[in-house]
Write a structure and sequence with these properties.
This protein is mainly alpha-helical and 129 residues long. The protein has a domain at 8-80: DnaJ domain (Helix Hairpins, Orthogonal Bundle). 40% of the residues lie in helices and 5% in strands. It is built from 4 helices and 2 strands.
Length: 129
């Protein structure tokens, strides 16, 4: 059975949008915490495994080409082809014809001379999410 490698971004504690400087800083911080010469816990197998994970994560993320390949592979693996989200098209949501609203004035039904006689037109209501 093949062993699944953990996400290198999670191992180093950085976001996928992190810069090289942020990745290097996180690597050095984690290395100090897990290195046998600087850690404050007694030696154990889990501590050694944590150190190996940190070294492997930095080895992958420090090279821009390998990092880009990993990001592409992760995005492709995370998005199933049959259920890929698509943006709604205008055909999915037909626009209704504008509604004509007659203008009435309180004093009279006639419009003042400076206002055109055409009624107002209101389009469809759009809600922001």
């Amino acid at each position: 059975m093949a062993r699944q490698h953990p996400n290198p971004y999670l191992v180093l504690g950085v976001l996928p949008t992190a810069t090289q400087a942020e990745i290097t800083h996180a690597y050095r911080t984690r290395l100090r915490a897990h290195h046998p010469d600087t850690r404050h816990t007694p030696p154990s197998q889990t501590a050694d495994d944590d150190l190996r994970q940190v070294l492997a994560a930095y080895d992958l993320l420090r090279d821009p080409a390998r990092r880009a390949d990993y990001d592409r592979a992760t995005v492709l693996a995370a998005t199933p082809p049959s259920h890929s989200p698509q943006r709604p098209t205008p055909a999915d949501h037909p626009v209704a014809d504008p509604v004509q609203i007659p203008i009435t004035y309180r004093s009279t039904n006639a419009a003042p001379a400076h206002v055109s006689a055409s009624p107002l037109r209101a389009g469809p209501v759009r809600r922001h999410r």
